[in-house]
Amino acid sequence: xxxxxxxxxxxxxxxxxxxxxxxxxxxxxxxxxxxxxxxxxxxxxxxxxxxxxxxxxxxxxxxxxxxxxxxxxxxxxxxxxxxxxxxxxxxxxxxxxxxxxxxxxxxxxxxxxxxxxxxxxxxxxxxxxxxxxxxxxxxxxxxxxxxxxxxxxxxxxxxxxxxxxxxxxxxxxxxxxxxxxxxxxxxxxxxxxxxxxxxxxxxxxxxxxxxxxxxxxxxxxxxxxxxxxxxxxxxxxxxxxxxxxxxxxxxxxxxxxxxxxxxxxxxxxxxxxxxxxxxxxxxxxxxxxxxxxxxxxxxxxxxxxxxxxxxxxxxxxxxxxxxxxxxxxxxxxxxxxxxxxxxxxxxxxxxxxxxxxxxxxxxxxxxxxxxxxxxxxxxxxxxxxxxxxxxxxxxxxxxxxxxxxxxxxxxxxxxxxxxxxxxxxxxxxxxxxxxxxxxxxxxxxxxxxxxxxxxxxxxxxxxxxxxxxxxxxxxxxxxxxxxxxxxxxxxxxxxxxxxxxxxxxxxxxxxxxxxxxxxxxxxxxxxxxxxxxxxxxxxxxxxxxxxxxxxxxxxxxxxxxxxxxxxxxxxxxxxxxxxxxxxxxxxxxxxxxxxxxxxxxxxxxxxxxxxxxxxxxxxxxxxxxxxxxxxxxxxxxxxxxxxxxxxxxxxxxxxxxxxxxxxxxxxxxxxxxxx
Length: 675
Known about the structure:
Elements: E1 17-22, H1 23-40, E2 44-50, E3 56-60, H2 62-69, H3 86-94, E4 96-104, E5 111-114, E6 118-121, E7 128-129, E8 137-152, E9 161-166, E10 174-179, E11 181-186, H4 193-197, H5 199-210, E12 217-224, E13 230-231, H6 244-265, E14 269-276, E15 286-294, E16 309-316, E17 342-346, H7 348-363, E18 369-376, E19 383-390, E20 396-399, E21 405-420, E22 424-440, E23 443-444, E24 452-453, E25 458-475, E26 480-500, E27 506-510, E28 515-518, E29 547-549, E30 555-561, E31 567-572, E32 595-597, H8 602-614, H9 618-628, H10 632-639, E33 643-645, E34 659-662, E35 665-668
Parallel strand pairs: 19-33, 28-32
Antiparallel strand pairs: 1-16, 1-17, 2-3, 2-4, 4-8, 5-6, 7-8, 8-9, 8-10, 10-13, 11-12, 12-14, 14-29, 15-16, 17-31, 18-19, 20-21, 21-22, 22-25, 23-24, 25-26, 26-27, 26-28, 30-31, 34-35
């Protein structure tokens, strides 16, 4: 399962999102790399000759040696060939001491069949092992074929010999080095030796990159710094090579020969990143990036280090990137390394911002500026009561680092007006308050705790719209009577499940748990309400990838929220998810029917209470006052018989035709009102 400890909101971290790929998955990619190049590439040769000295000080490649030897290739001469052979005489004449032939790849007899799992690679040591930092990376260089020929020229004491040394089946040779990771620019058309040798990876990656072609970005590739790898000769293994001169020549030149081969035929790419050159509207667009190693926390055996991760620490949309830190949790537990290639974790506020961007256009329609006017009509000597509504206002956005409310929209506006004639006095107050809160994950209750978090793979959007009318009227100079009513008091809760679609992409859809609660106190001022403020059925489908570990396009195979509300998704580079396996069983294939409730659901009530406390408790105070007035509704109705909408008044509400008049009622069309 995805890590439930992810807490990117911790001040120690603060990254917008992280892509963590395991050492095990990187090794799997390197194994495939070695298999591929061994199939397609030729040998690399190096020959060492002596010149005016008994020591081999001259080095040359195969073409140079063939020119010197008259076309004789030492590797065409079998081991233990008689020294009198004319070919060996020629080798003596040109001063050949040692010949090395290398082809990187998987050593013979290292592919074993495991029942139920098929062919498996069984190497003596992993190709790479991360240390505490990237600079401490151990890289073991393997070959599908490595052979060394030692030409022992006869002397007064010994007869000449021609001896081959090769890795044996079951005893592969490898050369251990210590290296670092380096970043270099990558051609946007992926015209490199590596991608030329891996056309399927190239085409899949280019297809993904084309989806972000509207964004100005540069490509970076992450490589092992093999050219400057430091040999760790004491930890290398060349079983059976007992000629000291040949052994030292091989150790001295193995890294260089292997890395030259890799460079000529395409060095293994650890990852590709698209870094934006300027911010755009694309979600999760990387504008700053750091790479960092996270060793396994509480490792109990050497095998546990397979779960060590290389982390891509990302900032988006021009945000500042905090310094790199190792995490206090494991992105993948050691027991799960065979089930997943890594994890993508998106900070709760990043997800919240993404969702609010989707919600905001609809939510603005419920952010309503109220208009109130009480004027004396000189011709009739009566008070004129005028009101109006101007939707489309801009709410305040707020984000929370902790707690159930991840983000909220809030808008409140109060219009007040009073007027009097010689005989009458009147005052009109209209308040409109709208809130929309985003809650990530599931919350449950039990007898001991009012609320506890259950993680899960759902998120909930909770909306409330309140419209309060307060009227005060009476004779001038005498006691006035008044009343207050919540003419609109509606709560909507919409629940969505995050899952993985059949193509391995993130998606979300509404569940059957959406509810509506209406406690409006009916009054003759129209049908003002909130429409379902959907986050759209699939808000995650266009979340583009900008980080490609292993230079591969990954797919998701699980999605859930951590204990701190980060969205964590397991990723794999092998097979896309065959089908969505959401953990919530209440998904709906078509828009679900909203359940009408008499009481606000417990989670919504809890969230609304928290939100109201943040804003001084005025909402609940007004609600309590309106509910406490026994005759409030009728009193307001009686007091407002002459109220009419203000579209006839100069500079009335700019509601673009959404306000209509039927006698003394005000109705909002469905684009604003609840249908």
